[in-house]
Amino acid sequence: xxxxxxxxxxxxxxxxxxxxxxxxxxxxxxxxxxxxxxxxxxxxxxxxxxxxxxxxxxxxxxxxxxxxxxxxxxxxxxxxxxxxxxxxxxxxxxxxxxxxxxxxxxxxxxxxxxxxxxxxxxxxxxxxxxxxxxxxxxxxxxxxxxxxxxxxxxxxxxxxxxxxxxxxxxxxxxxxxxxxxxxxxxxxxxxxxxxxxxxxxxxxxxxxxxxxxxxxxxxxxxxxxxxxxxxxxxxxxxxxxxxxxxxxxxxxxxxxxxxxxxxxxxxxxxxxx
Length: 273
Ligand SMILES: NC(=O)c1ccc[n+]([C@@H]2O[C@H](COP(=O)([O-])OP(=O)(O)OC[C@H]3O[C@@H](n4cnc5c(N)ncnc54)[C@H](OP(=O)(O)O)[C@@H]3O)[C@@H](O)[C@H]2O)c1
Prior knowledge:
By secondary structure, the protein is α/β, with parallel strands linked by helices. It has one domain (about 25-210, about 240-265): 3-Layer(aba) Sandwich (Rossmann fold). The chain has nine helices and seven strands. The protein has helices at about 10-20, 40-50, 65-75, 90-105, 130-155, 175-195, 220, 225-230, 240-255; strands at about 30-35, 55-60, 80, 110, 160-165, 200-210, 265. Strands 3-2-1-4-5-6-7 form a seven-stranded parallel sheet, with helices on both faces. Strand 1 (about 30-35), helix 2 and strand 2 form a beta-alpha-beta unit. Helix 2 crosses helix 9. The longest helix has 29 residues, at about 130-155. The chain starts with 8 loop residues before the first helix and ends in a 6-residue tail after the last strand. NADP nicotinamide-adenine-dinucleotide phosphate binds next to helix 2. NADP nicotinamide-adenine-dinucleotide phosphate (NAP) binds near residues 42, 60, 209, 212 and 217.
């Protein structure tokens, strides 16, 4: 049989050896940056990555919040650092990436998870300030973070990017028009980066959480009337906990997903089915 030699055949062989010789979900020796990690889904991802051996950089806007989470991960025996950064601020993102390069030398995993959703209401009444804020954080922020992290990964021979999108990126959530539009853009961004960065050995995937009990979604999860409307549409008939979303990120970050790039993985209790 004719062997087809591809640009990354040697890498594939190396990965297969790793997968078959150890726990395929082990992240030992990897440095991971997680944005929006001071609470909710990002915190759960940072904790799970640390448990599985990664050195994690916990980031969000508030320094004291990320220091508290990093401290708690370190107390639990993990390796964590805190760096505050507003991902909608271009200069702050540039500084963050320079800081990571000088302190850690390389970045293996980026989790683009922080997001903005400042407006809940009819799409026709959306203030342009809310449109701009949502686009600035959810599209421009994710793009610049991916670009700069991707450049670091290209220098060091590869890496992986995981974007937190949403089921609203597939089918828009009612009264969440601009937010849903930006999450659809995140799915498209995931595919565009995945295709162009594959030759640089950078895998790019997205996780699409369903309704998850966090501060972000509290307007829905803490409102009984809303929940009574939403729950019948969820086959598992309940809201997720952040710890139930995080394992999808671990899978996508690990060698277990070595042949997975460009996908959007729903973790949604079956709502998209
Ligand atoms: N919860 C859900 O039902 C649900 C469903 C689908 C998708 N998602 C997505 O999941 C991701 C995480 O949301 P979550 O539910 O875990 O929310 P959360 O618990 O409210 O956490 C949001 C995190 O983002 C940080 N953050 C907010 N704006 C930021 C900015 N401009 N720059 C840097 N950090 C910022 C917050 O910390 P600071 O305040 O310190 O910045 C916090 O750490 C988001 O992308 C969201 O769209 C959530």
